[in-house]
Amino acid sequence: MSTTPEFHSRFNIVNHTVPASTPRFVLSCNIYKRISTSLKDKSNNSSTPPIIFTHANGFHKEIWEPVISRLSSRWSAGDMYAFDCRNQGDSAVLNKDVIEDTFDWYSYAADILKVVDTYNLKNAIGVGHSYGASAFILAEAMRPGTFSTIVAIDPTMFPKAIYTNGTLDNHPMAQGTLRRRDTWNDREDARASLLRKRFFKAWHPEAFELYLKYGMLDVVNKDGTTGITLKCPKFQEAITFAAVGGGVNDAYERLNELDIPVHIIAGADSDINVPELVEMKVNQCKYGSVDFIEDTGHLVCLEKPEETANKISAFLDQFWDSRGDEQERPKARL
């Protein structure tokens, strides 16, 4: 199943620029609406709750399209929203004149709430990857009752005993980001360069092509030559890794405040979420559950979009069908 052009034949995609939670900042947001072909489709569309998707650090909203295209017909029937974090993707381009040299994960959470308010979303489902998942936890803790459930895909959140924020100078992932190449002659040059790295070789081809298409920005160099660079400046990705603030720890500590189900989907080979840590996170939830996807790591939704979509759809089926009875909330299963 290709996300282009087959994907575009199934979904109407509208891009909006919406206000962020902080004045002067804006967010680039895509709304995905499945093109209805029957009265049954239209009926499902009106009854399916909206889904919001948030991306991991260094990525962008379109990276979710391989997963969106593979959701079951029940869960792709409603409106779906994916937006770029204020300092990444198209939002970084829009905010280039006001972007800051610090970042707090709570701003991502506050921007999620701003998207909810902008579109007046009710019973929304949050699906986030990595720190995008943590942002949903913080958002629901900030304003309880905003979401009906959260699907956290290999979430980046830790107890203080295991992990605390470093600084830009001593954070290994931040320093690795700053050393990484971020300019190429064109997309073919970028494709050849990136596919030499094991990191990108593991991606599903659709996700990789979307990264090349939507994660890159065409530029004109000072000498008049053209090239491409990352839409998310690598300094912004680095300061997000080394974010000042307690978001990475607070997301874990505040899991027990949430009165909604939190379902974790983890890569079985994740170096971020080893099984023991996943168990800690599930047990920190009032209503926690988990699925593991084999033969993949932290970038589970980029490497295994079909398996990820199937796990999301199956969990939402279970959750939604049991909503009528509060005693039937999904419980942890390890």
Automatic annotation (TrEMBL):
Signal peptide: none
Stretches that traverse the bilayer: none
Domain AB hydrolase-1 positions: 51-309
Listed Pfam families: Abhydrolase_6
GO CC, alphabetical: membrane
Entries under SUPFAM superfamilies matching the protein: alpha/beta-Hydrolases (SSF53474)
Protein name in the entry: AB hydrolase-1 domain-containing protein
Annotated organism of origin: Mortierella polycephala
